[in-house]
Amino acid sequence: MPAKKPRRRGRLTVIALVMLLVAALGYGAYWSVSTVRASFPQVSGEIAIDGLSAPVTVSRDGNGIPQLYADSAEDLFRAQGYVHAQDRFWEMDVRRHMTAGRLSEMFGEEQVETDAFLRTLGWHDVAQREYDELLSEETKAYLQAYADGVNAYLAENSGEEISVEYAALGFVNDYEPEEWEPVDSVAWLKAMAWDLRGNMQEEIDRSLLATRLSPEEIEELYPEYPYDRNNPIVQETDAEGGSAAGEGTSLDGTLPGDGVADDGVADDGFTGVGLPADAEEALGGASAQLSSVADSLDTVPALLGTNGSGIGSNSWVVHGDYTTTGLPLLANDPHLAPSLPGVWYQMGLHCSEVSAECPFAVSGFTFAGMPGVVIGHNQDIAWGLTNLGADVTDLRLEKLNDGNYLRDGEQIPYETRSETINVAGGEPREITVRSTGNGPIISDRGEEYADVGDSAPVDSAAPDRGEGYAVSLSWTALEPSRTMDAVFSLNAASGWEEFRAAAEDFAVPSQNLIYADTEGNIGYQAPGLIPIRGEGDGRYPSPGWDSAYDWADEYIPQDELPWEFNPERGYIVTANQAVVGDDYGYRLTDDWSYGTRSQRIEDLIRGTIEDGGKISTGDMQDIQLDNSNEMAKLLVPHLLRIDISDPYVREAQALLEGWDYTQDADSPAAAYYNAVWRNVLQLAFGNKLPKELRVEGQCLSVPPADESQPLENLDGGDRMITECGERSPETAQPDGGDRWFEVVRGLLDDPENPWWTVPETDTEQAVEHRDDLLARAMRDARWELTAELGKDIDTWSWGRLHRLMLNNQTLGTEGPGPVQWMLNRGPWNIAGGTDAVDASGWNAAGGYDITWVPSMRMVVSLDNFDDSLWINLTGASGHAYHGNYTDQTDLWARGEYLPWAFSREAVEERAENTLTLTPANAS
After folding, report:
1. CA of 415: how far to CAs of 196, 418, 570, 722, 800, in Å?
2. In whole angstroms, what is the distance from residue 480 CA to residue 551 CA?
3. How many Å apart are CA 865 and CA 428, to the nearest integer?
4. Rounded alpha-carbon distances, angstroms, from residue 631 to 311, 378, 653, 757, 801
5. How far is CA 696 from the centre of its chain?
6. Dist CA 411 CA 406 (whole Å)
7. For residue 297, what are the CA distances in angstroms to 115, 232, 305, 306, 399?
8. How far apart are CA 626 and CA 596, in angstroms?
9. Does residue 229 surpass a pLDDT of 70?
10. Which of 90, 202, 609, 835 could form a disulfide with 738 if both were Cys (CB 3.0 to 4.6 A apart)?
């Protein structure tokens, strides 16, 4: 039997906990004020900690952003661990339990299935192998020093002294934090890699679409990248500043073979494979497993950030020939799910004297729980990251039988291991993890993964389907790598060659790395472990029983990955678009973002340059805050040409007349347009998708899944059944991102295309033409906004629909209102939109609330680092009611920035508190 569907986002075992917490608030002001304040860190004076060889200075500005100064690298990272723990240890502790599959130890029974999935992936085990086998001794020393600093903080503090959440947890759980281990830091890189893993969701979705749509219709929903309109990152291929393009394997895009697979559920009570399927149907055999996969994807990323077509980032760099400073300007704003505290922690790490033994003078954005700086600059170079989106995962269909898996006609025993999940307030749970040579079997862990195995396209050469295929996962992040080495090398790099050498170790996640230096150079490097496939193209699950679909023994050679250095055009833009043209010798992926953001950024930069202007720091800010809706420029003229007879709807349509397509928070036109867009997508596509992709609770009358129906004949007559959607509002389709821009763009000149049809219902006439569907969408949007915002369109605003809530990702996502009020903040009415440069994303299938944001913004001036700017989504502190909990959010929401002090003089000028960490054995 399929496993029970995993619980949705944030459903932790906190109901009893939060009820007791609310009761505890009744103890009076002492608990609610004194307990909250007990965890606020000491930020001035002196603290003696073990292990330091000399004093370390911690200067904090008014926003609580620390700048650390130490005489040795080990002291620097020991102090970083201590300071991270002061501000963010609860966040760090939850993260390490997540990466190790141990959330149940903190939050109880409801996290067992999430833990089982994470244990199946084995992130912590891979991180341990990296630490034991691959990382340099220098990196290990830094990691150990960082762990020692965290543990020095824990030795002095416990319970409510660490964070108010521990005080709450103490009512129902005697949990005490363990000491920090170096591998806890390394494991967080696996969570980062999971969040940015590439096209795994698209691979699942295409397979699930096969239960309802024809192969041709599926391909219409995944158009080719528009190289004729939107440029790739690497545009010049000359020897001076070009891309390296290998000869590569010719890949043909063949769909996998038809088959079946499993001997049932692993003996652990969790999900197995196996919804029955008709072996004669070409698309059968994998949907149960695939659905299981997507269910787990819907749960696990909720702890990290929504993964979807809108998740990405912007970065760009402009050469000094085209800037007002005469040296490069570099900008970056990663798009991630909003959380409280935010994922980033601003910090400066400075050796008192930079030398070979202590090479760090670096400042930027860090992850609490991991040493070093992830994005930022040192005294010589600056760098930014966006997700390259390389296809580094493959779902493999597995034919299992009596403890074996089929491989090239032979039965090979699959491997098993047992895992014990300890549960707060409950009995330990034993699970069995199964693996083939292709990777861990993830269809044992959830319904939607199982659905993959029931519906993935296959051909007639596949083995007997039986009760469905199992699904395993091949993923580069499951192989040990040296990404942690790369972080430290990047922090200390002094020029282009050292930067590229550091990038060579940046294995997972595969990122677009942009570069600038104080010598005036700019550059781009694509790093990462990117597989070379045999047969197949990674767009659909492949037959695990056929070694012809395996990855090659070696990944794409590092010296053949794309790069650019000082391109003639004078700038480089990365925003998750295609990295290279379609003539590149290797396949990176077919599931790029479609270039809407990147081309808008490029057009803004090029327009200034071609007009003879120079790009200033202010221009870089303006580009980051650009909220133009590029799809509206195409669709609105069609909407305005439609003759609307209903004066109530015509009144709303008139909002679009003269609209400049910007999506400011106070714009009524942006509110109405986005409501129309949402309704267009729902009418044209949403009602035609299978339940596994539709938003949960959306119930439709549809033909049975085993009865193929062309789009123009979806009424199904007497055969209609009711199906309700299963996806969370954050991950359902159609999400409205720029893939859907391309889909609709391709249909606008075909007004009688079957996608424009809507079947007749008891209350609505059938629609058979583009303009009729657009007219209905405008009507439905008018009524929807009337219900949401009121009858008077003059009072409408985009920000009232498009709101940001910052929720504590553990105790703040469920439970009674008083607890959420205590830990959460918001709402904020926000400008921007999906695939605008100012990408405050929302999922059109699920509603208008914000699901991803620019998680930080930075602009670096290579002429004078003290002229640089930065802003974080929340604040430095993870402590509720601390002054730095969300002190940057209002600035962020208004598009403002903070000065980014780097020189010692500038840091001291902004310092408001100075703490000295001294050796514990000092006399």
Report:
1. 28, 11, 53, 41, 53
2. 17
3. 53
4. 18, 39, 17, 21, 19
5. 21
6. 5
7. 13, 29, 11, 9, 23
8. 12
9. yes
10. 835
Q: Residue 170 to residues 31, 80, 177, 819: CA-CA distances in angstroms?
A: 13, 28, 12, 15
Nearest to 873 by CA among 856, 858, 890: 856
| 851 secondary structure, DSSP code | E
CA of residue 798 relative to chain centroid, distance: 24
Residue type at 766 in one-letter notation: A
Is residue 176's pLDDT more than 50?
yes
Cα separation, 396 vs 447, in Å, equals 16
Q: What is the DSSP string of 570-617?
A: SEEEESSS-SS-TT-SS---S----SHHHHHHHHHHHHHHHTT--B-H
Query: Identity (one letter) of the amino acid at 791?
Result: K
- Helices 668-684 and 738-747 pack at an angle, to 10 degrees, of 70
Confidence check: pLDDT of 865 > 70: yes
Q: Give pLDDT tens digits for 771-827.
A: 999 999 999 999 999 999 999 999 999 999 999 999 887 765 654 455 667 889 999
Rounded to whole angstroms, what are the CA distances from 450 to 103, 640, 676, 695, 900?
24, 46, 35, 19, 49
Enter the tokens of residue 568.
């003639």
d(CA 225, CA 50): 56
Evaluate the omega torsion of the peptide bond into residue 328 and state whether it is cis, within 30 degrees of 0: no
Contact 545, 436 (CB under 8 A): no
Q: 196 pLDDT band (50/70/90 cuts)?
A: confident
Distance CA 216, CA 711 (A): 11
Strands 911-919 and 56-61 come out as antiparallel
**What's the CA gap between 871 and 65, in Å, rounded?**
11
Strand 393-398 vs strand 898-899: parallel, antiparallel, or unpaired? unpaired
Tokens of 862: 């290579």
812: CB partners within 8 A, 6+ apart: 340, 819, 820, 823, 824
Selection from 555, 419, 425 nearest residue 481 by Cα: 555
- Rounded percentage of the chain residues whose pLDDT exceeds 90: 74
Angle among Cα 604, 609, 611 to the nearest 5 degrees reads: 95
**Average pLDDT in the 824-838 region?**
96
* Distance in angstroms (rounded) separating the CA atoms of residues 587 and 394: 14
Residue closest to 478 by CA, chosen among 848, 119, 135, 797: 119
Which pLDDT band, with edges at 50, 70 and 90, does 110 fall under? confident
The answer to whether the beta carbons of residues 131 and 370 sit under 8 Å apart is: no
Each residue of 316-369: pLDDT tens digit?
Answer: 999 999 999 999 999 999 999 999 999 999 999 999 999 999 999 999 999 999
- pLDDT of 17 strictly over 70: no
Cα separation, 615 vs 319, in Å, equals: 9
Q: Where are the alpha helices (DSSP H) in 798-900?
A: 798-801, 817-823, 889-893
Give the DSSP per-residue string, 25-72.
Answer: HTT-HIIIIIIHHTTPPP-SEEEEETT-SS-EEEEEETT--EEEEESS
Secondary structure class of 467 (helix, strand, coil): coil
**Residues 496/517, Cβ–Cβ less than 8 Å:** yes
- Answer whether 533's CB lies under 8 Å from 587's CB: yes
User: d(Cα 459, Cα 788) in Å, to the nearest integer?
Assistant: 48
- Partners of 237 in the beta sheet? none
DSSP state of 257: P
Q: What is the pLDDT of residues 598-636, one digit of tens each?
A: 999 999 999 999 999 999 999 999 999 999 999 999 999
Question: What is the end-to-end Cα distance of the chain in Å, rounded?
Answer: 68
